[in-house]
Design a protein that fits this description.
seven-stranded mixed β-sheet, single chain, globular, 25% strand, 11 helices
Length: 449
């Protein structure tokens, strides 16, 4: 048996930020915002190689009083058993089916994190990652914590992706879901952008709703998950945000096009208003076409997404005033923007250059980790398949450079931490690393005059 798993939790966030991102109270329930004490700090280990741990009991476990199911199991969330059974058909097509309309028993995030640790006690320690502070952070800034993550669809991990150095036992959904939730609960983002989500209705939506998140899910039209026996429905993009902090003004689901053709890739764009400051911004999540040889296709998808974002950020809402707009081009103004995604593209690709040079005025948050501030991390995904080893930078958090400042960025773990068997593994649930950054609004130019 491995020693008790230890990890750091809420890392170096000031009191105002903790207060703003407290997730213990449902938006439909009134009352003052409570500041919960952060979880007790756990000593982090950075060992990358471990023998296979003893397999723990794989029976379903209650997550904050919400029953979540194993892959292929007939059990599911009490509220969502019907939705889970019809995931690939009517439930997704019916605009009146909104899971966020349901009331949920509110969960304590600290208690849920401890539950994750208990379930995972026989697994090696999670990867230790620190935040790099890029600028002084003040109480007045009220930073937004953004998390981007391709979590690896369960059906693909077990049935299609062929991670030759990852034992199938490590991918068991009955424990892997706790690894995913532990990562989210450790950093507690205000906005969470996920790709390859195939357990939205039976796991992530109800559990995160109990923690105070409102969300939206957009499945791929022809998800490869559906080709896997005993699948849990299509995978897709999901966007979650702290409903206590943000008011949803508008949501758009996009099916991306390339070369005049509709593709299998999608995006979600949400326009949010911060309840504390009144500031309005858009956040988008997407997942572009994978594999080499499709570079031109990805570039075309990126061009289509950028055009859609330009149209969406040009819109006005009654809740907005001039302070909510930022100049994005020659004489052009728009709503500030954050774009998260697995672009399946290295920085050398055309789609990356499209985003860097877009009239939307975007920059990449993770360049802040480099010494010169212009270089992306050496990798955000590292896996071994039958075709060989792949170490690539594919994931990004883009932000409106004139509207936001990057306060902090979560480090990329070292090669030694990841270990020779790469990702996924017993102590990390996905072949992609999560990206987390803290953004704060810049002061508007007219306020400085």
């Amino acid at each position: 048996m491995h020693p008790a798993r230890r990890c750091s939790t809420l890392l170096h966030r000031d009191l105002a930020a903790v207060c703003l991102s407290s997730l213990g109270t449902h938006a439909k329930k009134s009352g003052p915002l409570k500041i919960s004490s952060p979880p007790s700090s756990r000593l982090c280990h950075s060992r990358g190689v471990h023998p296979p741990p003893t397999r723990s009991n794989s029976s379903p476990v209650l997550l904050g009083s919400l029953q979540v199911c194993q892959m292929g199991s007939s059990s599911s969330s009490r509220l969502f058993s019907t939705l889970a059974q019809t995931l690939s058909s009517a439930a997704l097509a019916d605009p009146h089916v909104d899971p966020d309309d349901y009331e949920y028993e509110q969960a304590d995030p600290d208690a849920l994190l401890r539950e994750c640790e208990e379930v995972l006690r026989n697994r090696p320690p999670r990867l230790h990652r620190d935040f790099v502070m890029t600028r002084p952070c003040s109480l007045q800034n009220a930073p937004l914590r953004i998390m981007q993550w391709n979590i690896l669809a369960q059906a693909l991990g077990e049935g299609k992706d062929s991670f030759v150095r990852c034992p199938m036992e490590a991918l068991n959904w009955s424990e892997r879901k706790y690894l995913i939730l532990e990562e989210i609960l450790t950093y507690r983002p205000d906005v969470l952008c996920l790709q390859e989500v195939d357990h939205y209705f039976d796991t992530f939506q109800p559990v995160l709703a109990s923690l105070g998140y409102q969300s939206s899910f957009c499945p791929k039209p022809c998800s490869p998950c559906l080709d896997v026996h005993n699948n849990n429905g299509p995978d897709g993009c999901a966007l979650f945000f702290n409903r206590r902090r943000f008011q949803l003004l508008h949501t758009t689901h996009l099916r991306l096009s390339a070369m005049m053709l509709k593709t299998n890739q999608v995006a979600i764009v949400a326009t949010l208003r911060c309840r504390l400051t009144g500031r309005v911004f858009c956040v988008a999540v997407t997942h572009l076409k994978a594999r080499s040889g499709w570079e031109a296709f990805r570039s075309a998808q990126g061009a289509h997404l950028l055009q859609q974002l330009r149209d969406i950020t040009a819109q006005s809402y009654p809740e907005m005033d001039q302070e909510n707009r930022t100049r994005v081009g020659d004489g052009e103004e728009g709503i500030p923007l954050v774009v998260c995604g697995d672009f399946n593209a290295e920085p050398s690709e055309e789609v990356y250059r499209r985003f860097m040079t877009s009239p939307l005025g975007l920059d990449s948050a993770y360049k802040c980790l480099s010494e010169d501030g212009t270089t992306e991390p050496p990798y955000t995904s590292w896996k071994i398949r039958p075709s060989g080893e792949s170490c690539s930078t594919l994931d990004y958090i883009w932000y409106s450079e004139r509207a936001f400042q990057v306060d902090a960025v979560l480090r990329i773990p070292s090669e030694e931490q990841i270990g020779p068997d790469r990702l996924p593994s017993y102590n990390y649930p996905s072949d992609h690393l999560s990206l987390v950054c803290d953004l704060s609004f810049s002061q508007q130019p007219h306020r400085l005059m």
